[in-house]
Design brief:
Quinone reductase that provides resistance to thiol-specific stress caused by electrophilic quinones. This protein is α/β, with parallel strands linked by helices. The protein is about 40% helix and about 20% strand. Bound molecules: flavin mononucleotide (FMN).
Length: about 200
């Protein structure tokens, strides 16, 4: 039985394009894996706190676990991620990067001794998650010089925890006034459908 962990980061709800792409993905995933389990983590509804001095002391082994809300939360977020065979991240671009809620989440799950370790040969990821799917929405268009620092950062973070099989669909130009958003959205939804057509053939 497969488990998917779906993480949403848009502060918007019904108007959010990244959530809309995520809903399409989740519907297809559930019909491909009817016995599967979907865990959801909505970072807008339940934003993780920023790291504190006390939390970092516990992360590096200088404090005791229990009592520090951040460290307890980190362990429960990591437990949730360990259950996932696949991770779906649905996220907007805010100010060229990931939303601060998603960055705070990353700071809680990328943790030495839990999701990565290190020896003389370098870092080694510790997650068994097989694949990650990134569905991102951005108001601007890359070809007009609006950069996306989120996807490379998330890719590096996932690889660091040993999630190597990463797929990304970006819906660009959600506020770009060229009248072609409908086509771009249809293209992104069709891209998701192609992932599932490939999964069914595999
Ligand atoms: C605070 C904020 C910052 C944003 N910064 C960017 C940006 O740097 N680049 C960009 O292309 N769009 C930017 N946008 C536009 C959003 O990426 C766009 O509206 C996207 O569709 C939001 O995702 P959502 O539809 O899932 O909510 C920003 C929007 C907000 C609210």
């Amino acid at each position: 039985m497969k488990t998917l962990l779906r993480i949403d980061a848009s502060a918007r709800r019904s108007e959010s394009y990244s959530r809309r792409l995520g809903d399409h993905f989740e519907t297809s995933w559930r019909s491909t894996y009817p016995e599967g389990v979907v865990l959801t983590r909505d970072l807008a509804l339940d934003p993780p706190p920023h790291l504190t001095d006390e939390t970092i002391r516990i992360f590096v082994g200088e404090g005791s676990v229990g009592g520090a809300a951040g460290a307890d939360l980190s362990e429960s977020l990591i437990d949730e991620m360990r259950k996932a065979d696949e991770v779906l991240i649905c996220s907007p671009i805010y100010n060229f990067g990931m939303p601060s809620t998603l960055k705070a989440y990353v700071d809680h799950v990328v943790r030495y001794g839990y999701t990565f370790t290190q020896d003389e040969k370098g870092f080694h990821g510790m997650l068994n998650t097989k694949a990650a799917w990134l569905l991102t929405a951005q108001g601007g268009m890359a070809r007009f010089g609006v950069p996306d620092f989120q996807a490379p950062a998330l890719g590096a973070v996932l690889k660091h925890m040993s999630v190597a099989n990463i797929h990304h669909i970006a819906l660009e130009g959600t506020v770009y006034p060229d009248g072609a958003l409908g086509e771009r959205l249809a293209g992104a939804l069709a891209g998701i459908d192609r992932w599932f057509n490939l999964a069914e053939k595999a």
